[in-house]
Amino acid sequence: MSARSRRRIGARGREAGTALLFLLPLFVLVVGLIIYPFYRAIWLSLTDKLVGYPERFVGIRNYTYLAQDDAFQQVIWNSMVFTVASVALKVVTGLAMALVLNNVIRGRNFLRGLFLLPWITSTVIIALTWRWMFDAFPGRGFLNSFLLDVGLLSRPVAFMATPAGAMTAVVIANWWRAFPFFGVSFLAGMVSIPRELYEAASVDGASAGRRFWHITLPGLKHVIIVTTLLSFILTINDFNIIYVMTRGGPGTATQVFATYSYQVAFNQLRWGRGVTISIFVVPILVVGIVLISRYLLRDRR
Amino acid sequence: MTRVLTWLGLVVFLLLILVPFWWIASMSFKTYEQIQFAVSIYVPHPFTWENYTGLWTDTRFPLWLRNSLVTALVVTLITSVVASLGGYAVARLRFPGREAVASLILILYLIPPALLFIPLYRVLTELGATNGLSALFLSYPTFTVPFCTWLLIGFFKALPEELEEAALIDGAGRVTAFVRVLLPLAAPGLVASAIFAFTLSWNEFLYALVFITDETRITVPVGLNLLIYGDVFHWGQLMAASVITTIPVVALYIFIHRWMAEGLVAGSVKG
Fold first, then answer.
1. Distance from CA of A160 to the nearest CA of B (A)
2. Which of 1.20.272.10, 3.40.50.300, 3.90.1010.10, 1.10.3720.10 is the CATH number of A72-300?
3. Could you state, in order of their start, the residue ranges of all structural domains in chain A?
4. pLDDT in tens, chain B (271 residues)
5. What pTM value is reported for the model?
6. Are A288 and A232 in contact (CB under 8 A)?
7. 8 Å CB contact of B93 and A240
8. B176 in contact with A at a CB cutoff of 8 Å?
9. Residue B148 touches chain A, beta carbons under 8 Å
10. Is the peptide bond before A250 cis (omega within 30 degrees of 0)?
11. Which of A37, A131, B114, B195 has CA atoms 20 to 30 A from the CA of A191?
């Protein structure tokens, strides 16, 4: 033990040197391709940069413009509806999935793996898949094919043609992709709740509903908070599903932060304003990141 | 009662997960006429491979597949080197600011790509790296490296310290101890991290869409997006392309799914 600690003290300086060497590639990458671009983003948001023209400093004009822009108000509202609706659905379905799998003894690992398939599939393919599920044309659209076939519809419906229909479709696609992840995370949490708690509650005559409410949910609190926060951050920044399914349409009915930012920057070629749109998300992101870091860094210690 | 509910729930979830996959897969085996006239809705009958062969000969899909593969392999290699070095340093070496570096890596992992695509495009343009796969080699590590480093920190921390101590006492330097002792022990973690890096690159869409416009240099997800909005009526080919693209990821996933489900509960995969 003493040899070990003596060695430690002697080697401390060298260890820091080695650490610097080992971390160097990471630092170069982070500074050059994350921190520097982020700094550039802040600068761009203070200019009126149009593609092909030199940028001019305009102060906070992009921010004030967006704050008064009706289209952007719509984007904020859409992003909130999209995020809150899909995350809430994910939590509820995830709980149901975890409860079901928790009761399965044989084949649980297999089913858990199978249920996670949407989570590992490319989001572009998932978006394409749900576009076809909802497609107005019966040969391609599963819902139309199926409902016509069983006689619940008499002629095809263009599900995604209305603003509400399009929003529902993108929420469902986003939910379908991620709820298995919630289910598997919640299952891992459920398995770690001590069995004695349930046995004691059963002896005291607590019903299944009360056991769920008073034992399962409190036991899952931590994992529910972490997965919800994580999913919130990812969902509010979603680009792939909405871009591929609706391009933000019909009109601006499903336009969210990332797709709007892309549209302004690459269709209207207004880079300054496009960047400003993504910077509006930063405060939400910071709150989310601070909360998650607290939980996850505590876990690591 | 619980048994009935469990069975019922299981059936509902199985249908929910499998029907969309089945719909795509079955359409990839239907002829144009079968799709057009909505016949043999649930099971392709007769069954045809023409979409797969057509995809291979009539479209640029093989080229896109090659681009995706090259990108994913290069990014996985870069990521494995950078993340294993960084993960080891944070997990095992004592230096001032270690906790701060660990927090920074977590924060970087949580930054969504949608935040940085415009300024990153400018930076890549200045480096002369847009409109080619090199744009992706440079930009994908911005999300794969923080994630894989975070993963490997946990992995290196869990390895027994005594083995490394023994190597050091025997006179090996830190670098030798890392290469000879720690890396082989961490092999399962490195494999998992490599698979995640590969999958994240393989599935990525936004950066590839923004940074590359040349149709011969795009990756599969961007190509699929082109096909769906192009004036192409080869619906079956599009489905076949989706099936082919999903297969490698599923194959890799079979290796790590148990580890993925039981390991890091929060933040196993980003996407």
1. 16
2. 1.10.3720.10
3. 1-36, 72-300
4. 788 999 999 999 999 999 999 999 999 998 888 887 777 778 888 888 999 998 889 889 999 999 999 999 999 999 999 999 999 999 988 899 998 999 899 889 888 888 899 999 999 998 988 889 999 999 999 999 999 999 899 888 888 888 778 877 777 777 888 888 888 888 888 998 999 999 999 999 999 999 998 989 999 999 998 887 766 567 888 899 999 999 999 988 887 776 665 544 334 333 3
5. 0.90
6. yes
7. no
8. no
9. no
10. yes
11. B195
